[in-house]
């Protein structure tokens, strides 16, 4: 039986009674300057809107997989005010010390490898937008530069700006534990395991973690047109930013963003046990069938039309006519995952373009010019 994520979320439910305690600050406030926008911890902002939203409410905890409310109230709505995204509020030489809230295994027992959902409490001090990344500095010193800290590792954020608790205090990461197996013996070599991914996946609630950022603008979700089409193509943990997009579109009640377009997610993983956030996505499919499509490519279970393993580019080819029509009509297309995913995808798109009598190089150039093409690979 596959293990499901039980990351905690918070849902506001109207009840009678005083809940003013919910608005109390539990961290030292500090102001953060960014360009012409003053990014400040939300506890220092005017509490009028926060108090209004929280008045006569209580907090109910449930797992992400059990959340059944179509839309969830979020706070503080001041996070919607800035016109520009926060960038590099904390740098490697002066990182922010955040706290681990929870670490949950996302995949089932038959998945090759382990992927964890990690919730980090930043206290509202390191705000971010959907599609951005945090840097993580694991403990210990850099083996190549003794006496200096470890290098920063970047991770795409897998939550909206309000976090999994909908209060603007947390961020979630989707992390695959990196292990190394000797090709000759087949045995694991602990000395070559991924330092940061293992630190995060082994972390316990209350542990401290050094974070930097947020960083990145290429994967920001364009919100100027709520009727736009967004085609998202992910392999493995590359689904992280898309989880943030989809929660903003379909789970959260954001007064300034009412999504009425089409979101289409393609997710490539090894097998059914490797699917990430699958129940969340299937719930959107049930609740918003006119606005969400969800296709998976399971390389060890599905076959492509040639009888070989099914990869995400095979799914793209399967729906190529529809995808190209959507792109011609202004759709945004996003790619996130391992760097090795792109050559196969590009080859498929080139082949489809040629079959349509188009030049892929010209089409790609136009997509980039129109800011419809978004790629983040690692």
TrEMBL record:
Position of the signal peptide: none
UniProt KW Plastid keyword: yes
A Pfam cross-reference name: NAD_binding_1
Chain positions recorded as NADP(+) binding sites: 156, 176, 237, 299-300, 309, 337-338, 376
Keywords for this protein: Chloroplast, Electron transport, FAD, Flavoprotein, NADP, Oxidoreductase, Photosynthesis, Plastid, Transit peptide, Transport
EC code: 1.18.1.2
One example of a Gene Ontology biological process annotation: photosynthesis
Known catalytic reactions: 2 reduced [2Fe-2S]-[ferredoxin] + NADP(+) + H(+) = 2 oxidized [2Fe-2S]-[ferredoxin] + NADPH
Swiss-Prot/TrEMBL cofactor(s): FAD
Entry GO CC: chloroplast
PROSITE patterns: FAD_FR (PS51384)
Main localization (coarse): plastid
UniProt subcellular location: Plastid, Chloroplast
Domain FAD-binding FR-type: 93-221
Protein name: Ferredoxin--NADP reductase, chloroplastic
Organism encoding this protein: Punica granatum (Pomegranate)
């Amino acid at each position: 039986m596959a293990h499901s994520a039980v990351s905690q979320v918070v849902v506001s439910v109207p009840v009678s009674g005083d809940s003013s305690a919910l608005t109390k600050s539990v961290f030292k406030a500090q102001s953060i300057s960014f360009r012409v926008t003053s990014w400040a911890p939300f506890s220092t902002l005017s509490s009028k809107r926060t108090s209004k939203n929280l008045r006569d409410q209580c907090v109910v905890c449930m797992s992400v997989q059990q959340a059944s409310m179509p839309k969830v109230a979020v706070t503080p709505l001041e996070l919607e005010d800035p016109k520009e995204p926060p960038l590099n509020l904390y740098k490697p030489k002066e990182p922010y010390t955040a706290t681990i809230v929870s670490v949950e295994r996302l995949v089932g027992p038959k998945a090759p490898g382990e992927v964890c959902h990690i919730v980090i409490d930043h206290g509202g001090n390191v705000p971010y937008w959907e599609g951005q990344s945090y840097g993580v500095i694991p403990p210990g010193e850099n083996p190549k530069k003794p006496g200096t800290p470890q290098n920063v590792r970047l991770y795409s954020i897998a939550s909206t700006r309000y976090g999994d608790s909908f209060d603007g205090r947390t961020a979630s990461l989707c992390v695959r534990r990196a292990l190394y197996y000797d090709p000759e013996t087949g045995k694991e070599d602990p000395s070559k395991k991924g330092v940061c991914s293992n630190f995060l996946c082994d972390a316990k609630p209350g542990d401290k973690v050094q974070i930097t950022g947020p960083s990145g603008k290429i994967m920001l979700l364009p919100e100027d047109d709520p009727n736009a089409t967004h085609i998202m193509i992910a392999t493995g943990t590359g689904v992280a930013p898309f989880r943030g997009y989809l929660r903003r579109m379909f789970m959260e009640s954001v007064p300034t963003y009412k999504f009425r377009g089409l979101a289409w997610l393609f997710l490539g993983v090894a097998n059914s046990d490797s699917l990430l956030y699958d129940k969340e996505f299937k719930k959107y499919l049930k609740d918003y069938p006119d606005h969400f499509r969800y296709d998976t490519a399971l390389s060890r279970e599905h076959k492509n039309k040639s009888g070989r393993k099914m990869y995400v580019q095979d799914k793209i080819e399967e729906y190529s006519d529809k995808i190209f029509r959507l792109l011609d009509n202004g759709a945004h297309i996003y790619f996130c995952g391992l760097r090795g995913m792109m050559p196969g995808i590009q080859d498929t798109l080139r082949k489809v373009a040629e079959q349509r009598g188009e030049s892929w190089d010209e089409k790609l150039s136009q997509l980039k010019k129109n800011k419809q093409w978004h790629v983040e690979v690692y």
